[in-house]
Amino acid sequence: xxxxIEVNLVDLLNKLExxxxxxxxxxxxxxxKLExxxxxxxxxxxxxxxKLExxxxxxxxxxxxxxxKLExxxxxKFSQVETRFNEINNxxxxxxxxxxxxxxxLITGLLGIIGKVVFFPNx
Length: 123
Hints:
Elements (H helix, E strand, L loop, with lengths): L1 H118 L4
């Protein structure tokens, strides 16, 4: 009886060893699959990171170009406003000179009349 138990135990041990070996191989296969999947994920993440960096670079370039366009448009508007102010200033100077010229003529005429009356009274 002890022999049968020993044989049974040896058989059981052998079966257990084969099952453990099978489990080891399955674990190894699963580890390999997991590693390949992790590697694939790493490559995908790397490619996504590169794409994101290129998009960020493109956005930076677009922002820079928009800033330049905005600066040129603002400069253009400032120059337009400045030319309008200069035109208004020129018109105002022309009107002022015309007004002072008219007043000068009137004052000269009045002084002439007053001078004639004072220096050459009527007899």
